[in-house]
Design brief:
There is one protein chain. The chain is elongated. The protein has one domain. Helices cover about 60% and strands about 0% of the residues. It starts with a helix and ends with a helix. The protein has 5 helices and no strands.
């Protein structure tokens, strides 16, 4: 891929969420919620060296890697990971992306806190 292809991709991909928001006639609140996560996704795609010609050229492997990046790799705070992945999923869905492929943008795993069992001292057990 030549430098011209890189420049074209690096321009349209980060701004794609704005195109979707405009096409759907959504308001500024949608832009406030969708644009930052989409921009994070676009930077991730470009950093991987991928230069898709359109959103349809984004691979399922890229989506899985981004999901892992947000979840296991800790690129975003745990509380924000669902929002980031959901925003990217919505932009791709409204762009005509295959809904079955969007399953790879899964919500992060839930962290289950392990509770320590309260130890019962022998004297307390005898008093009961």
């Amino acid at each position: 891929m030549n430098e011209t292809d890189f420049n074209k991709t690096s321009r349209w991909l980060p701004d794609w969420a704005h195109s979707v928001i405009k096409a759907e006639a959504w308001d500024q609140n949608a832009a406030r919620v969708l644009v930052p996560p989409w921009h994070r996704f676009a930077v991730f795609v470009l950093a991987r060296g991928e230069r898709p010609a359109s959103v349809m050229d984004i691979t399922v492997e890229t989506l899985a890697a981004f999901s892992k990046y947000c979840d296991v790799d800790g690129a975003v705070q745990f509380s924000e990971a669902s929002l980031v992945l959901g925003a990217v999923r919505l932009v791709l869905l409204q762009s005509g992306f295959d809904p079955a492929a969007l399953v790879t943008l899964s919500a992060p795993r839930r962290v289950k806190r392990v509770q320590k069992k309260k130890r019962v001292r022998p004297r307390e057990a005898e008093a009961s």
